Amino acid sequence: MTLRRKLLSACLGLLPALALGAAPGVAQAQGTIRIGMTAGDIPLTHGQPDQGFEGNRFTGIPLYDSLTMWDLSRADRPSTVIPGLATEWRSDPSDRTRWIFTLRRGVRFHDGSEFNADAVVWNVRKVLDREAPHYDPRQVGLTLSRMPTLRRAERIDDYTVALYTSEPDSLLPINLTNLFMASPAHWERLRAAAPNAEAAWNAFAANPSGTGPFRLTRFVPRERVEMARFDGYWGEKAKAERIILLPIPEPNARTAALLSGQVDWIEAPAPDAIPQLRARGMRITSNVQPHVWPWQPCFAEGSPLRDVRVRRALNLAIDREALKQLLGGFMVAPVGSYPEGHPWFGNPSFRIRTDKEEARRLLAEAGYGPQRPLNLRVQISTSGSGQMQPLAMNEFLQQDLRPLGVNVEFDVVEWNTLIVNWRQGCTHPSARGSNMINVSFSSMDPFFGMIRFWDSRMAPPVSNNWGFFNDPRFDEMSHAVRNAFDPRELDAALARLHAAGVDEALFVWIAHDVAPRAMSPRIQGYIQPQSWFVDLRYPHIRQ
Amino acid sequence: MSTTTTAPRRPPTAAEAELAVQARQAPVRSQGYWAGVWKRLRRDPVTIACALILLLMALAIVFAPLLAPHDPYQGSMLRRLRAIGTPGYPLGTDELGRDMLTRLLYGGRLSWFMGILPVAIAFVVGTALGVLAGYAGGKVNMAIMRVTDVFYAFPSVLLAVAISGALGAGILNAILALTLVFIPPIIRVAESVTTGVRSLDFVDAARASGAGAFTVVRVHVLGNVLGPIFVYATSLISVSMILASGLSFLGLGTRPPEPEWGLMLNTLRTAIYVQPWVAVLPGACIFVTSICFNLLSDGLRQAMDVKA
Amino acid sequence: MIRYLIRRVLYAVPIALAVGFVCFMLVQIAPGDPINAIVPADAPGEVVEQVRREYGLDRPLPVQFGIWLMKVVQGDLGRSLATGRTVWSDLSTAIGNTLMLAVAAALLGFTLGCVLGGLAGTFRGSLLDRVAVSAAVAGVSVPHYWLGMVLVVIFSVQLNWLPAMGAGPGGSSDWAWDWEHLQHLVLPAVTLSVIPMGIVTRTVRGIVAEIMNQEFVVALRGKGLTRRGVFLHVVKNAAPNALAVMGLQLGYLMGGSILVETVFSWPGTGLLLNAAIFQRDLPVLQGTILVLAMFFVALNLVVDLVQTALDPRIRRS
């Protein structure tokens, strides 16, 4: 406590209330971690969060579990898929569209009901079976685009369930990390008091029940969510007693909130605030993560980006070192969706680097130059999970490309809107004439990292092939990936696909995030895995 | 308060009432009046100073291409967020390493444009409608003034945000929204001063002598009401600049990379920890401009007020 | 008097209807199919068609307005596209928070404005007058969103005296009237109060100066009337107009807090509007504007009535 604060407290000590409240950040209940998120609103809490992966990070994984989960316990290696509510799984060799999942026994939802095969079937039907009483159209878009081959589930016995896909899909277990298991019993109870299913889901969002290590105790729309440790958790229990989540989309407000002790942890501090945060004793954490911050091109008729020379030129034109400076060093320059040395990197012949001369030559070859500028319109967001510093970074790119005769203009929309538009495609009115879209993505799941963008069947409205890229070679390669049930075979198929994607310059690869977070030194035990997610069971407040 | 309309209405603000009084006394004005105005203005150092500051700013932003030391769009990460007083960058550099002085000069163009244009359009449209309502009276007055009342039922910031929020971000939409915000108050002032002037003897005399309505309005009414309405309109410029920059600050006005003070304030927000003085510069520019317009408007009103 | 009252109240009805129409038109002027303003972009086709019928979007505009109006009158402002919650559920808490902020700012601004304006009007031409006038001009000229940023840097970040954002440790629903919560109100309220402070100072100064110049006041003072007597006289005569200005200012504060709420993440209608604009959540945008405008209409009515009651001269027409 500074002298000034002491003086102030002494002066205002006349107010009886002050004796209790004191200045911000002094007295806090033990073991309560308050987190400032970048989202503008609280991510949906009914089990299938919105707000991108920040939603999964804060209202998905802590409240719910999925059949398969990410191992978030290590900082020193990429996180891998581990058993969650399923203890093991295998593809049926006689029918490659059938997967058998063995469920964990003795798991209970927050409301006390039991997790079993029926619960799995119920949760698959909530997004896939239009006839189901609890079918929720609002969850479909958020969920199915992340597991587009899943078709239905079937109970084999109480603890065994079969999942069916529309075609052989070796990636299903990874996709399933996004299907969170909500409590059917709890929903049915709420349904009894609600006029319809939609109202029941709204009630469920305000009062959810999953199997996760935390249970929701308080939900104040647009302001905060409080979660308490779930003592009946099946796995290692959480250390912190309570987690409080606050949406603070404005980076300055986040920094100010941390510095004034209103929160203990903020997501994505503005790089310019980091020296100040360090000077005030805050800890800045970061780690490499499977993240790509790209411009995704439109391949529709009339788009200048149909020309591979233009796409390659843009990849060569960007000064990523300067961008890194803008970000205070908090980024990694990409050479593709995966780093060199990664089993899925492959052997691309096109090397992503900064070579403005070559970029200029390629643009000239494609017919562009200072006399005939290339006009690009990019749809970007103001903030968002994984979007880093979207406005400043995009403005930098605009400025960096201008001398090459590339005129970039932006269509700025809100983050959730951008995600929705991402599933509508570049020919939809929501694109408002944009021929690029700037949505950062996670690449830890190869479906997320490649197939959903490069497979023609993943064009909107199915998934995120926003640009309607359509090349039979890529469809074939993604087919090969999905049919590779042997791990080594799968790696090889993915490496081929990635190398081809880099050679075709299917993105303008701009940055990998290192997910900077700033937290108070009072937080102990925090582990930042090489992942978009964090396991909130580990961090706690020093006593 | 005398009003020709039948429905009750909010009483005029102090400024409106003062203007109505001025307009009614207007006919006594002559060449000696304007000489008196100028004489009073000259004796008012604050107003003169404000006028000079505004003139200098206007010249600076008009001649920005000649004065600006750098390119407003080209920066460099190597020299981002330099402090005020850095050699070559007298006001420092912004978050993308662009010269602040240059950006502020160019930014003034859009800020002034977005601040003044809505008031200018509203001045023309509002005066026309207000004089029409005041001169024609009766049903025309009723129709115009009732529609005006509807827009008066929205707080100005809310109306601007609502319209530009619905239309979507963009300079034109922001200007349209602000224009719609300023038309109703100008109509009110114009209507009230015109109503005052219309009932005066000399206008009656002109009408009795067979002069056409157009001539009467042009010669006798406009000549006497334009001054007060103009003074009122200048007082709106300050509000307009703050609102326009506010819309840009919210992301509803200008888009990057166009320099505009409100947007610059927004994008420099995170730099407030590194270079607080650089980060507050655009806000200071808005502040200075707005305060000068306000004081100038006050000075004009006082100088033209025959009561003084 | 009674006739005037009835007439004034009846007059508010067409205004309210017209305000409703303007709000209804907001969705119509928005680019794109209005249906996209009511259902989420990824809603299935049959849901879209059902909603289109329900809202009569395939019928002529006046019919649509009628349907919309019926819903609004019944308290149905629609559902948020982003969250699926009813607009009213979010709006009702937000309005309370904005009202709290506006009233706090009004108390602060009006008190300061009356004191400064009264002193300045009484001692016209003095140094005090100049200070008050300068403060008033600064108050109405300062971009308050910028002032808010500066205050946060000084008082939250540098001095660490006051919180920078939010409505208290438990959010607005946990609000309590203790210092722990009230301190969250300080910076936004101060920031928001500068405009009414400036306007009230100017208004009160003008009114007071005019009254002080009236011959009989000068005469009264000459006769040695006590300061107290003069003061009471001034207050009595200045009150109606000053109250009218302050009433309207409260309305402007309610409707104009969007920038300040954005800077301080104050969970009121302004923050809700800001989110709605960027999410293109038109039902929320429309509902918020409608309710705020209706509040303003009602406030105007109350101000008129109070002013009439205080000052009978206004009634004659």
Would you give an account of this structure?
The complex is a heterotrimer of chains A (543), B (308) and C (317). Chain A is 31% helix and 19% strand. Chain A has 543 residues and is α+β, with helices and mostly antiparallel strands. Chain A has three domains: 3-63 and 212-287 and 515-541, D-Maltodextrin-Binding Protein, domain 2 (3-Layer(aba) Sandwich), CATH 3.40.190.10; 68-185, Dipeptide-binding Protein, Domain 1 (Dipeptide-binding Protein, domain 1), CATH 3.90.76; 291-511, Dipeptide-binding Protein, domain 3. Chain A has a seven-stranded mixed beta sheet. Mean pLDDT of chain A is 89; it is low at 1-29. Chain B has a domain at 104-308: Orthogonal Bundle (MetI-like fold), CATH 1.10.3720.10. The longest helix of chain B has 38 residues, at 213-250. Chain B starts with 13 loop residues before the first helix and ends with a helix. Chain C is mostly helical. Chain C has a single domain (87-316), classed as MetI-like (MetI-like fold, Orthogonal Bundle). In chain C, 74% of the residues lie in helices and 0% in strands. Chain C is globular. The mean pLDDT of chain C is 82. The interface between B and C is large, with 51 and 64 residues. Chain B: This is ABC transporter permease.
